[in-house]
Amino acid sequence: MAKRGRIWIGTSGWVYKDWRGRFYPDDLAARDWFAFYSRHFSTVEINNTFYHRPAASVFESWKKQAPRRFLYAVKANRVLTHRKKLLAAAEIVPSLLDSARLLGKHLGPVLYQLPPHWHANRDRLREFLGVLPEDLRHVVEFRDPSWYVAGVKELLESHNVGFCIHDLRGVQSPVWATGRFAYLRFHGPTEAAYRGRYGKSRLRKPAETIREFAGAGRDVFAYFNNDVGGAAIDDARDLLELLAPSE
């Protein structure tokens, strides 16, 4: 029997002003928010690495502040995924991953989010996947439905790279798990992305899927990106409750 996988639940980012008073105490200084967050969740997805390249000292500070067994998922910079559309990966990827590796044992998956309206290009995907080092966990989020075909799934499987299950503006990706782990992103249940509560009723089916992945021996990472108004916090807590062992 396969060893049961571990489940990691968190949010996409932790620094949101509108979480003050809803999650963070009103009198808690922003510099102490991460310590507060990490007492409630075991992982977080870092999104600001998508927009700019933090200095090495920033990664070192993230590493230093992380509790034992806490993991960061790191979103790859948009220069690679959106501007270059995976071209020149052999030149770009090593420097991106050198920064991520500074997190040491606190580094979880590296997320490569591809742009919307970019139709499937399997040759370019194959070349990109061939550049990725096998000692790290990698996951790709596709934003165009043309990628949701068997050939793409097989490419990910052959390179041991994960597929990001996600919903965005009412479009649900396939529920695939490829490689060594499963990865889910919850962008919000409404047409307006990144807002709105799922609630336990909507999360029961994903919770069952997560249990199945973990039962098959895969680690599972799930992040809530519906940050507006603190909905991500409430939904992450609900999912944790749904997945809690029954007494």
How would you describe this protein?
By secondary structure, the chain is α/β, with parallel strands linked by helices. The protein has one domain (11-194): Protein of unknown function UPF0759 (TIM Barrel), CATH 3.20.20. It contains nine helices and nine strands. The chain has helices spanning 33-37, 48-51, 56-65, 78-83, 89-101, 122-129, 150-158, 199-215, 231-243, and strands at residues 7-12, 43-46, 71-75, 107-113, 138-141, 162-168, 171-172, 181-186, 219-224. The protein has an eight-stranded parallel beta barrel with strand order 1-2-3-4-5-6-8-9, surrounded by four helices. Helix 8 (199-215) links the parallel strand 8 (181-186) and strand 9. Helix 6 (122-129) packs parallel to helix 7 (150-158) and helix 8 (199-215) crosses helix 9. It is globular. The protein starts with 6 loop residues before the first strand and ends with a helix. The mean pLDDT is 95.
Percent strand? 15-25%
Query: What oligomeric state is this?
Result: single chain
Summarize the main sheet: 8 strands, parallel, barrel
Overall 3D shape: globular
Report low-confidence residues grouped into runs of 5 or more: none
| CATH architecture term | Alpha-Beta Barrel
Strand ordering within the main sheet: 1-2-3-4-5-6-8-9
| H/E element sequence | EHEHHEHHEHEHEEEHEH
Question: Count of helices?
Answer: 9
- Give the structural class: alpha/beta
Radius of gyration: 17 Å
CATH fold label: TIM Barrel
Total domain modules: 1
CATH class categorisation: Alpha Beta
Number of strands: 9
- Helix content estimate: 25-40%
Output mean pLDDT: 95
Intertermini distance: 23 Å
CATH superfamily: Protein of unknown function UPF0759
